[in-house]
Design brief:
six-stranded parallel sheet, four-stranded parallel sheet, Rossmann fold, 14% strand, alpha/beta, 434 Repressor (Amino-terminal Domain), 14 helices
């Protein structure tokens, strides 16, 4: 019987040919030689936003594909002395309940050829541990969605890492920041509700250590005082769905009856509040009770809710943040700048709104 198996020597040769690898990495100079262009032209083709003709780009991409070329980010960073990485320091609650912020920031930096390294922290008072992780990475700059202390801000300066605050501010000093005016947004919502005849208010607040929650609460209470209306019944919340339901029940327990309107510290709590009002207390929303939120997340527009809320202009804020931080990285120096954006009232189906008073 004749065997159909190939000779052992042929099999070994085939295996050796399969595992054989190039002796060196393909470089941009190899691509330039194959494409018939300069090495700097190759670099521009792989740099987002750089000026290069369509013809040159096509020739370089064809040569890169033929040579299986991949740009070496580490080598580029040695030349430019930049990692093209920025840190985004953000609360875990924001990631969970308001993912649009992180998505838009990541997209804006990616369009500018910069990658994002995410650093999350559970609560504002646990920021030091997260910043210790930040310093272990070669970032060019940082977006910080947290209230920094003077000591923490000084550490960024000491390490020559520029930063931009997102929706936050420093205590007793100026810093580069992109913010939505939470205080005025809260005042606007109270004015619109009061304009429809609401007089008795409840507030499901955000976490005690949240600076955004503090600004919103201050805006609500200040505007009610100016209108000579009673202070709101305030209950604590944690920015999650369960807090909304608990808050609704707590307000009913304290008041003995439903107020005219409940303002919730974010949209997720507002959705929980609506469900509790409808199912636990059989209240008509907005006929018997107006409920509003903050932020303008996607789920706020779901058919079952169509929440009346205040939408933060996340996309233009993210554009401004990316432009400001990359400008700081390029220039290394600047005077502190604070750009303020206004929230927009979304007139949904969960509250009766009147003209501002």
């Amino acid at each position: 019987m004749t065997s159909s198996l190939p000779p052992v020597s042929d099999t070994i040769g085939d295996i050796q040919s399969l595992i054989r690898r190039p002796t060196r990495r393909v470089t941009s100079y190899d691509v330039a030689s194959r494409a018939g262009v300069s090495q700097s032209a190759v670099s521009r083709c792989f740099k987002p936003g750089a000026s290069v003709s369509k013809e040159t780009y096509a020739r370089v991409m064809k040569a890169a594909q033929e040579l299986d070329y991949t740009p070496n980010a580490a080598a580029r960073s040695l030349i430019t002395r930049r990692s093209n990485l920025v840190g985004v320091v953000v609360n875990e609650l924001a990631i969970l309940h308001y993912p649009d912020i992180l998505t838009e920031l990541t997209r804006q930096f990616a369009e500018r050829g910069v990658r994002v390294v995410l650093f999350s922290f559970p609560r504002e008072n646990e920021l030091d541990r997260t910043l210790a992780e930040v310093w272990q990475h070669p970032i060019d700059g940082a977006v910080v969605a947290a209230r920094l202390s003077a000591v923490q801000a000084a550490e960024f300066d000491r390490r020559c890492v520029p930063f931009v605050l997102f929706n936050r501010h420093l205590r007793d000093q100026q810093a580069n920041a992109i913010v939505c005016d939470q205080y005025e947004a809260a005042r606007t919502m109270v004015s619109r509700l009061a304009g429809a005849g609401h007089k008795r208010f409840g507030l499901i607040d955000g976490p005690a250590d949240s600076s955004i929650a503090q600004e919103r609460r201050r805006g609500i209470t200040d505007r009610l005082r100016e209108l000579a209306l009673p202070a709101p019944v305030v209950v604590a919340g944690e920015y999650d769905y369960a807090s909304g339901g608990r808050g609704m029940r707590a307000i009913m327990d304290q008041s003995g009856t439903a107020p005219d309107a409940i303002i919730c510290g974010n949209d997720v709590m507002a959705i929980g509040c609506i469900d509790s009002a409808r199912h636990d207390f059989r209240l008509d929303i907005p006929g018997q009770l107006s409920i509003t939120g903050f932020d303008g997340i996607a789920s706020a527009g779901w058919l079952s809710y169509q929440l009346t809320t205040l939408r933060q202009p996340v996309q233009p804020m993210a554009v401004a943040t990316a432009d400001m931080l990359l400008g700081l990285i390029r220039s290394n120096t600047s005077y502190p700048e604070r750009r303020v954006f206004s929230a927009v009232v979304v007139e949904g189906g969960t509250a009766r709104l009147g003209p501002a008073v």
